[in-house]
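Entry type: protein chain
Record version: 2
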Amino acid sequence: MQKSQTTVLGVLLLLTLLLLAGCVGNQTPASEDKREPVTISVERDGGLLTGIGNVKVYIDGKEVMKVKNNQTKSVELLLTPGTHTIQTKGQGDKSSTVEFQVLTGEVNAFSFHTEISNVYGVSLERVR
């Protein structure tokens, strides 16, 4: 082969590889295809001394919202079917972790109640 033919073949091979790499990079991961819409609502109440600041809400260890005292707040998420966790943190304390199940093809709406207490720290319970 002549040098110019080798160069052309090399360039064509490089372009082919780049095109293939671009196609692979644009594919949606299978886990993203299977995510379900989920609504999480958190109600917070407490007294005058425990109502200062926000309570942070974590889903699977990631902060998703903050809730003020005497407030109910909701967030819409896309989560994979299966077991997930929610936890609240406020004023240096954190609640226990509560599990909930996301089901395929179902209405996945969950309500929780959280409260900060001077004695017991942060509590969290599932309401529905």
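Comment: The longest strand covers residues 36-45.
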